[in-house]
Amino acid sequence: MKYLATIILMACFCLPSSGQVSYSITYNDSSSSKVKITIRPTKLKRGPIVFIMPRSVPGAYSVLRYDSFIEGLSAIDNAGEALSIHKDNNGAPRWYCTDTTKVITQLTYEIDLRKMERQLDPTDASIIRRGFAGLLNYSIFGWIEGTEQQPVQCTVHTFDQWPVFTSTQPTMQMAKGTLTFNVENYYTLADGQLFMGPQFQVKEFKGLVPLFIASYCQTGHEYLEDYGKQGIMSLEILHDYFGELPFKQYSILLRKALPLEPGSVPPFGMEHLQSSTFFGDTSDFRSNPLSKAELVATMPAYLHHMGHSFIPLRCYGDAYRPYVKEIPPVINNIWFNEGFMWFVLYEALKSDRWEKLFYNNTYKADPLIKKMSLQELSQEASFMYSSDFRLGRAVFSRGAGMAIEMNNYIKEKTGGKKSMKDVLRSLYYWTKENKRPFTMEEFPLLINKASGVNLTAIYNKWQLPIE
What we know:
Layout: H1 2-12, E1 21-26, E2 34-40, E3 45-46, E4 49-52, E5 70-77, E6 82-83, E7 86-87, E8 94-97, E9 103-112, H2 113-119, E10 127-129, E11 132-136, H3 137-140, E12 143-144, E13 152-157, E14 164-166, E15 178-183, H4 186-190, E16 193-196, E17 200-205, E18 211-217, H5 225-242, E19 250-256, E20 268-271, E21 275-280, H6 292-297, H7 300-307, H8 334-349, H9 352-363, H10 367-370, H11 374-384, H12 389-414, H13 420-434, H14 442-451, H15 456-463
Parallel strand pairs: 1-13, 18-19, 19-21
Antiparallel strand pairs: 1-2, 2-9, 3-9, 4-8, 4-12, 5-6, 5-9, 7-8, 10-11, 11-16, 13-15, 14-16, 17-18, 20-21
Helix pairs in contact: 5-7, 7-8, 8-12, 9-12, 11-12, 13-14
C-alpha cells in the first residue's frame, strides 16, 4: 500500500503552467560553510508536492548524489509552520510532502559546501573559501516536480560588500549584496554558475561576442590577458567551423583553490551552454604573459570545452540530453560527444601530437578495454568516464580516430572540396532545425548525406573491438 500512496501522490501533483518560480540563495554567515536555499512556487497550493535533486549533469558522465548534501528540508505553509516531508524510501533523490490540508508557500533547505567538497571531485563540487564562494547551480538547486519548465526568478543574498557574478547574465557592473535575475526555466538556472565575494576578479574582452573571464585563485590574482586571448581565438575558430556563435556572450570561469586535504588537484573543465568552468589547484598560477608557444600549448582545454557549446550541448543524439536529469542515462555515443570535438581541436590547431595521443589511447589501451565494442565502451563510460579515465581516454580517442579517418576519406573522394567540417556543420544545423536529437540509426545516413560520400564502412569498422 505504501507504493500506491506514492503513485497517487505523483499523479495528483500539478502546478500552474504559467507564472514564475522564485529561487533564492543566502550566504551571510562567514563562520558557516552552509548556504540556504528557498523555493517558492508560482501560486499558493495545497499539497502534495515532490521535490527532486539532480543526479545527472551534462558532460559529467557519472552519478552525482547531490541529494546527499540536503539538510533540514522543510515545506512551509501559509501560517509559517513546517510540514512533514520525507525522503523516498527507494533511494531516489526525491522528497514528498503529502499533507493535503495545508497551503504550501515555500520549500527551504541548506547545503554544506565543505562536506560536498570533501566527498566529490573538484569538477562536481561547489566551494567556499575566505572571501569567496564558487557555486555550480546544479549542485545546490533542485526543483519542485511540475515546475521545471516555468520561468524562474533567482535572488542571491550575501554580505553587503560582496560582488556577485552569474554566468547566466554576466556583466562588469556586478551588484553587491543582492542580485536578482530571471531565466527561462529551471534547466537554464541549473546550467549556470555563481561567483560571490571580494576575492575574485572579472575582466571583459571584446571579440565576436563579449567574453568574460571570472577568476578566483586562492593564492592571489592571476594575469588574465592570455585567458582572454585564448577565449577570443577559440570563439573565432568555432565561428569559422560552425558558421555562427549560438550565444550573445560567453564566460570562462576559473577556480583554483588549495585542496582541503593534502594533495594535488588535476586541471579539469566542465562545459555549459554559454560558459565553461575550469578547476584545479594553484600549481599552474599565471602571474606573467605566456610566450606564443605556451599560449598555443595551453589553449586546447579552453577550445575543447567551449566547443561543447555546439557538440553535444546543441547537437546531440541517443540518450544524451543537454540538461540535468534525475536518473543518469546510459549513452551509446560518448565517442561522438567527446571524440568529434577533440577532432575539431586537432583539425583547427594542426597538431600531430593529438593524432599520436588518439592512436596510443586506442591501440595501446588496456586489453580489457580494447575488447569492448565502441557502444559497450561508451555505455561503461556513461558512469565512469573520469573516475576510471582509461574509459574516458579510450572512448574519446576512438571517436577522434573515426573522425580523422572519415575526414581523410571525404577529402580524397571529393578532391578536397568537402571535409568533416561540412559534416559537423550539417549535423549542428540539422539538430537546430529539427529541434530534437538524432537517433543512432539516423547518424550514418546524416553523415553520408552531408559529405556526399559513403562513410558506412568506416563507421562500422570503428564500432568493433580494437584488434
